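>> received
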Amino acid sequence: MQDTVGPVEREARLALVEHDVRQKIDRHGFTIMGIFPSEGDGHPPFAYTVGLTVRKLPELMITLSADVQFLATFLEKITEKFLEDPAGAFAHEVNPPFEGRLHFEVEDRTFTVLLKVIKSEHIYNFPPSFAYRLYGDDNVGLLQAVVPDDQGCYPHEEAFDPRIIQPVLYG
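>> returned
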C-alpha cells in the first residue's frame, strides 16, 4: 500500500508523535519506539529507546523475530536494569564503556543479554529515527541488546538457532 500523505501532513503527524514521545520521556525518563516492517520486507521487528541520550548514555535497541508485546516488555526490563547502574550492571566485562553482559529477569526467567556497540554501517535497515530526530545523528550512541537462544548461544556463534531471526548490528 502506497503512502498518499503529502510532506506537510507527514511532518504535522511526526510533530504530534514527537510531542507524545517528549511527554513520555519527561514522565518516565525514556520511551520505547517499536518498528514493525511490512510482511515480506525481510526484516524482523525492532524496538529502541529514546531518552537515554539526555543522560549521556547510549540508546538501546533490540532486533528480534518476536511478539510485539514481548519485545516492548523485554526492552523495558533491559533499560530499567541498565539505568539502575549503567557502568556496574554488567558482569565485570566492560570493554568499550557500557559494552558487556546484563543479567535480569522477565516473567520468572533469568536472561543474560549481550550489549554490543552498534556499528554505523550496520544501522541502515534499523534506524532509530526518533532518537536521531530529537538529538541529532552524531549525538546518539547505540547498543544492541543481543538475546541468546534457548541453549544460551548468541547470533554470532555457530550453534545459534537458525530459526531465530536476530540481525547482528555489531562487529
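>> Helices lie at 7-28, 68-84, 129-135.
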